[in-house]
Structure formats: structure tokens, C-alpha cells
Amino acid sequence: EKGTYPHYMLKEIDEQPAVLRKIIQAYQDDNGNLTIDPAILTALKEADRLYIIAAGTSYHAGLVGKEYFEKIAGIPVEVHISSEFGYNIPLLSKKPLFIFITQSGETADSRQVLVKVKKMGYPSLTVTNVQGSTLSREADHTLLLHAGPEIAVASTKAYVAQIAVLAIAATVFAESQALPVGFDLTQELGIVANAVQAMVDAKDEMEQIARDFLEVTRNAFFIGRQLDYHVSLEGALKLKEISYIQAEGFAGGELKHGTIALIEEGTPVFALATQEEVSLNIRGNVKEVVARGANPCIISMAGLDEEGDTLVIPHVHPLLTPLVSVVPLQLISYYASLHRGCDVDKPRNLAKSVTVE
Ligand code: F6R
């Protein structure tokens, strides 16, 4: 039930701090330590490479998950679009573990890959919001998102939940192998939940950004580097699917290799600047587009912010910034859709769960 909310999407965006807290609880043992099914830890230990398979927003969460498994858990990861992978299976490592990320657990493109890799005898894990869903039943293992039902076609809280659960899996695995993690994930996710709350409480500001940058435009660009690049892909997808504004996410350094030709006077460019290592680089990329007339909306993180930034998100652990920076992008898309009179919860041509290949 959407209760007093005008749309499910807004309700689901608002639920995100609670979803994060729910996930922490769901993955805590009696002593308050994060934990996951020991059988999954064993599967991760036996694997020499993880293959993350997903579509759409879940694929974007997978790109972030790759960073966690590689940087925290020390396991190499490939992330693949399910509709491509099944028909062009790459040369696999000796001991692959397949991880399917799927909110619904019913996506046909992802299921056909599971069917194929099962036939090949490989182990599998489904990360899903729906217990008892097809991919959950058919995979060897399941990690649940605990996000509650997601009704709006545009995925919001499931993306945040996927990233949080992948962070937990990577961290718990690293701890189980006595690898140095260097932070307390429970505590850091608590800080993230508060930061997400601050973002959803700033709806008026997000609505104003939608007015300032997206009221009349035909197109928009999203740029970022490292983790911010992955989030820029998700920001562009959200905007496209519910507002019908043509939007693309780009690696900050890549725009100038062709696409910068599309920048005109007033073209909105959303730039994410939450990663210290590439902070100067992304600022340089913003200058490149501004010199061609772009209207830049800079979303930075406290500590890396500069005068003139459009929005500053609260400081969180650098690996967890996607959980926070995506929230303003979701809200900005929501208001752009609303102002354009689009059907926010049921955009044209889309279904919540895509059960055909
Ligand atoms: C975007 C969106 C889709 C889904 C994709 C995968 O907002 O909802 O891109 O993310 O169809 O769906 P699941 O995660 O159910 O496999």
C-alpha cells in the first residue's frame, strides 16, 4: 500500500534508510556480528573467480559489487549483462562461482544463464528480494535483500539493498579468511543510513535541481570516475526510464573521446565527485564540458566539496558512497518525471519483471 504517498517510487525511495537498518539486523548474529550462510562462505572460498550476471539496475549494482569482492575480499570478479553472457560465454576460469543479482528473481535473461551454467556443473548464488522466486529456487545458494516488496517499475531500494548485501558478503568473507578489512561495516552502514536519511529529507532541494536542470532539456549526461562512474550509469537509467529524457552515463575521462560533440549551450551534465583519488580528474572533466556550454550539476561529498557545488552529500566510507549518491539522482529523476506529467510508477513500454528473453 502506498498510503499517503502519491507514488510507490517516492515511498520506496523514502524507505531506504529503514531498508539499510533492516539489512544490518537481518545479517547480524546474536553477538551483533555480521554473518552469512557458511555454505556461501565455502563457495566463495572455493572459487577462483566470481561471475556476476544481471540486467539493468541489478547489473549496475553488480558493477559496485565487483569493487567490494576485489578490494575487500581479494577475489577477481567479472560482471556481465545476462542477455549477452548466455549467448557468448567467455573463456571461464577453472573454478567459477556464478552470482545472479535479480530483484524479482524472475528475469528470463538471467535465468537462461543459470540454466546453462548449471548444466555445465558450476555452483551458483542468487542475490534476490524474493524468497522462493525462480532464480532463488534454482541456484545452489540465496542471499536475500530484505528490501520489502518493490512495486514501482523503476528500481530504487532494491539497488541500495543489493549493494549493501554485496558489501556484507565481501566483508564477512574477508573476515572469515582473516584478511585485513580496516573498517567496521556495521558502523559504516549505520552512518550511511543516516546520510541517506538526510538525502530523502532534502526533497525540496532535489525538486529545485530537477527544475533548474531538467525542465526543458531533451538530453542529459551523467559522469563520474571509479565508483562514481557506476552510479552515473544508474542515474542515467533512472532518468531515461521515467522521464523519457535521453540520458547517458559516462566515465568522466571518456566523454571527450567523442560524445562531448553532443554538449551544447545549456546541456545538463550531472557530475559525481565522491572519490578522493580521482577528485581532481573529475573536476577537470567538468571544466571540459563547461567550456562547451554545459550546465553542470556537481554532486560531491563533504570533505571533497568545492565552492559552487550544487549538492554536497554527507561524508561516508569511500567504498559506500554509491548507497548515498544514488539517492539524489533517484529523487531528481522522480521530480523530472512528475514535472513532465509522466506516469512515474508505470513508465511506458516497461514491465516490473521481464519474463521474456
Ligand atoms: C530499472 C529496472 C530494470 C531491472 C532489470 C532487472 O529500474 O527496474 O532495469 O533492474 O529488469 O530486473 P531484476 O533485478 O528483477 O532481475
From TrEMBL:
Function according to Swiss-Prot or TrEMBL: Catalyzes the first step in hexosamine metabolism, converting fructose-6P into glucosamine-6P using glutamine as a nitrogen source.
Originating gene: glmS
The reaction(s) this protein catalyses: D-fructose 6-phosphate + L-glutamine = D-glucosamine 6-phosphate + L-glutamate
Domain of life: Bacteria
Domain SIS: 40-179, 209-347
The protein, known as: Glutamine--fructose-6-phosphate aminotransferase [isomerizing]
Compartments where found: Cytoplasm
Keyword S-adenosyl-L-methionine: no
GO molecular function, a single term: glutamine-fructose-6-phosphate transaminase (isomerizing) activity
Keywords associated with the record: Aminotransferase, Cytoplasm, Glutamine amidotransferase, Repeat, Transferase
Active site per database record: K352
EC number: 2.6.1.16
Subunit structure as annotated in this protein's UniProt entry: Homodimer.
The keyword Cytoplasm belongs to this UniProt entry's keyword annotation: yes
Major location (coarse): cytoplasm
Name of the top EC class for this enzyme: transferase
